[in-house]
Write a structure and sequence with these properties.
By secondary structure, the protein is α/β, with parallel strands linked by helices. The protein has two domains: about 5-30 and about 95-245, Rossmann fold, CATH 3.40.50; about 35-95, no CATH class. About 45% of the residues lie in helices and about 10% in strands. It contains eleven helices and six strands. The protein has a six-stranded parallel sheet with strand order 3-2-1-4-5-6, sandwiched between helices. Helix 6 runs parallel beside helix 11. The longest helix is centred in the middle third of the chain and has 20 residues, at about 75-95.
Length: about 250
């Protein structure tokens, strides 16, 4: 049975593209603007636009759940809630603080190892771009694939964002690996026939990410940086152009 370090090295060595989830592996999006308060804000908006949805909207503290619920109100309601969510996310990342420990090193190491690098997120493209630009790391990313516009059904755990990343880089999805901290990331990777690395940023996640079938699990993003640094100049060499050349959300 391979150790986690061996499993991590194998999956990174055999991947042409490294895909990073945003909220968790790169930063804590709602660190400065708590997610429950954003959910309340969106619930109030949804209740005003579609009163029948007020009850379920106010029963959750997850902004993404309110956003998904909004599609039951029709396209106009969904567009209004999605715009409000995107605006809130941009406010949130402006006060989210420093990147996750080890994440910047991991981005650098992926590029130095010759891998394509993408952010694949259920957060909006705009908020990801804002955060990466604010912290001077946007040039480390070749592609940002954010929340599909007006299509909550295509958010992870749908494989759509991962397949879009693979297509953008011209590689088979089985040669990509997604680094994520949630079960939906692992589910999306399985559905896309991609590999996955679970980032267990909370104690209980190590067991749940392993049980979900992650190919490897790390407790610290520095482990990914260290493993990738051993691959510098080894294996696939694919280069990249930087996210400043391609910031479009996939739909």
């Amino acid at each position: 049975m391979p150790t986690q370090a061996e499993a991590l090295g194998t999956v990174l060595r055999t991947s042409k593209a490294v895909l990073f989830d945003f909220d968790g592996p790169i930063c804590d999006v709602f660190r400065g603007l708590p997610a429950p308060s954003v959910a309340d804000e969106l619930a109030d908006l949804l209740a005003a636009l579609a009163p029948a949805l007020a009850g379920p909207a106010r029963a959750t503290s997850d902004p993404m759940e309110v956003h998904s619920l909004a599609q039951e109100g029709g396209s106009t309601v969904l567009a209004a809630v999605e715009a409000a969510l995107t605006a809130a996310e941009i406010r949130a990342v402006k006060v989210a603080g420093a990147p996750t420990d080890g994440s910047v090193q991991a981005l650098h190491a992926a590029r130095e190892a010759g891998r394509h690098v993408a952010i694949v997120s259920n957060n909006s493209t705009e908020c990801v771009w804002e955060y990466l630009t604010q912290h001077g790391i946007v040039g480390l990313v070749d592609k940002i694939i954010g929340r599909p516009v007006l299509r909550p059904d295509l958010m992870k755990p749908s494989p759509h964002p991962l397949l879009a990343a693979a297509s953008a880089f011209g590689v088979a999805s089985k040669l990509t690996v997604l680094i994520g901290d949630s079960l939906t990331d692992i589910e999306a990777a399985h559905a896309a026939e991609a590999r996955s690395i679970g980032y267990a940023n909370k104690l209980h996640k190590e067991a749940s990410l392993t049980a979900a079938g992650a190919d490897a699990v790390v407790l610290d993003m520095r482990q990914i940086a260290d493993s990738l640094s051993l691959l510098d100049g080894i294996g696939y060499s694919v280069g990249g152009g930087g996210a400043e050349n391609d910031r479009d959300s996939e739909v």
